[in-house]
Design goal:
Blueprint lengths: L3 H14 L3 E5 L5 H6 L9 E6 L3 H8 L3 H7 L4 H15 L3 E7 L14 E7 L4 E7 L4 H23 L2
Parallel strand pairs: 1-2, 1-3
Antiparallel strand pairs: 3-4, 4-5
Length: about 160
C-alpha cells in the first residue's frame, strides 16, 4: 500500500500551488489515479485518468504512434514521454503523469526484465522520464511505481514552485 503520508503531502502541495494533474497508466492499471483520489478534496487537482494498458489503447486514446511502439516497445522512455505529453495536452492540465512497465511475474525478457518501469511527468515546458527496476512481485511493482511517481511529482513541485 502506498504511504498515505506521501499521498497527503502531494495533495497538499497540488492544492497549495493550484495545479492540476491527469494520469496515463499502463502497468499500474489505474492504481495511480486511485491513490491520488484517496484524499478528500482531490477534485481540486485531479482531472482524469486513462488506463492505456494495450498498445491499441496507447495509440487510440493517447495518440502514441504505432512506429514508436514497434521501434522501442511499450515499455520504453520514448513511450512514457509521449503518454505523459498526450494526457497533459488532452486533459489541459499542468502535469501529465505516465507509467509503463512490466509488472510481472511474467512478460519479462533479458533486455526488459520484470520490474522494469518508466515514469514520465510532463509540464508545459519539459518532460522528466525516470527508469526504475523494481522486484518480481506484481502488486509490489505497481505500488512501488505509484510511490516513485508521487515522489517524482513532489520533487518537481518543490523545484518548480519554490
Amino acid at each position: 500500500m502506498v504511504d498515505i503520508k506521501l499521498v497527503n503531502k502531494v495533495s497538499d502541495e497540488l492544492k497549495k500551488h493550484q495545479v492540476t494533474v491527469a494520469t496515463a497508466e499502463s502497468c499500474t492499471g489505474g492504481l495511480l489515479a486511485h491513490t491520488l483520489t484517496n484524499v478528500s478534496g482531490s477534485s481540486e487537482y485531479f482531472d482524469q485518468g486513462v488506463i492505456s494498458y494495450s498498445n491499441k489503447a496507447k495509440q487510440d486514446v493517447l495518440g502514441v504512434p504505432e512506429e514508436v511502439l514497434k521501434k522501442y516497445g511499450a515499455v520504453s522512455k520514448q513511450v512514457a514521454e509521449l503518454m505523459a505529453q498526450a494526457i497533459r495536452q488532452r486533459a489541459s492540465v499542468d502535469y501529465g503523469l505516465a507509467t509503463t512497465g512490466i509488472a510481472g511475474p511474467t512478460g519479462g525478457t533479458k533486455d526488459k526484465p520484470v520490474g522494469l518501469v518508466f515514469i514520465a511527468i510532463a509540464t508545459k515546458d519539459s518532460v522528466v522520464v525516470k527508469r526504475f527496476l523494481f522486484s518480481r512481485d506484481r502488486l509490489a511493482n505497481k505500488e512501488s511505481t505509484c510511490t516513485a511517481t508521487l515522489e517524482l511529482l513532489l520533487d518537481l513541485l518543490s523545484r518548480e514552485k519554490s
